């Protein structure tokens, strides 16, 4: 029935508004889940930094390796925080879109006409280019185009330089700043000391290093999963 009415009279504004709000809520829930995962990952990364720093303090023979690990984990923490900031900003944009969309439908109901919104167009164009929201934001943009609120979205992918930005090495100053923060100003300055270790003690140290590397790999996998 709704389909037949849409053919002769056009889409029902109330139905369109409900669809738009459903899609916005779906995107918001997705962002909330992603942000929650990043918070958990950030907490775990901070603990890995602390553990590696303690190992550098307690085991002079492993100081060089452990100190390098703290810097690796600090870079990972910077990437996590950058991703979290991006998602939090996107969530705020999404809430802004919802308010503007509802306002546009309200004006249409009162005045009987609808003007295209460049503000909504700009926000939606930004959000639809995010890998995390691409599919559902495409659906939302389709509904907004049908309602006459925005024009058709053309650019739906992030430029390559933006996609690769998270892979760039963070500046050493930023890494040191993170380490100072996490370790509360007690950044390990232990210099590597050459100590002859018994052969039987090398295996546990190697196993511990492999565990750290496996943990880091899992962290990166989860972070990458949020982008895909």
Kindly describe this structure.
Residues 199-213 have a biased composition (Acidic residues). The two termini are 38 Å apart. Mean pLDDT is 75; it is low at 1-9, 156-164 and 188-205. The chain is mainly alpha-helical. It contains 8 helices and no strands. The chain has helices at 2-9, 13-58, 63-111, 118-128, 134-147, 160-165, 172-182, 199-227. It has one domain (2-159, 190-227).
Q: In this structure, how is the largest beta sheet organized? A: none
Unreliable residue runs: 1-9, 156-164, 188-205
Helix content: over 70%
Number of domains: 1
| SSE order | HHHHHHHH
Q: What distance lies between the first and last C-alpha atoms, to the nearest angstrom?
A: 38 Å
The count of DSSP E runs of length 2 or more, i.e. the number of strands, is 0
Mean pLDDT: 75
The coarse overall form would be rod-shaped
Report the β-strand fraction as a percent range: under 5%
SS field, number of helical segments: 8
Q: How would you concisely characterize the structure shown here?
A:
With 228 residues, this protein is an all-alpha fold. The chain contains eight helices and no strands. It is 76% helix and 0% strand.
